[in-house]
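Appendix B, Record 12. Input sequence as logged:
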Amino acid sequence: MISFGFGEALLIFLFLFLIVLLLALLSPARSLEKNVRNRITDLIIVGLVLWHSPDTKFAGMVIFFYGFGILMYEKYNEGKREALNSK
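Logged structural output:
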């Protein structure tokens, strides 16, 4: 039987939480164009990696929220186009 200490269990939990967070953030990007989707994915992943490194927390936070902002803007434009086309 494998036994984990508190530190290992917490690390596994955080890793799984990060995977679920990435899937939740990037699933709306599937309907976007491929180049925009790739750019958003790159920005969010690089931002998260930098955010969790010890020396570049602020830069990672800025890059992450910039990628998230682009995602929200593109989804807004997509919804606006659909609403205008349905009239």
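The two ends are 62 Å apart (CA to CA).
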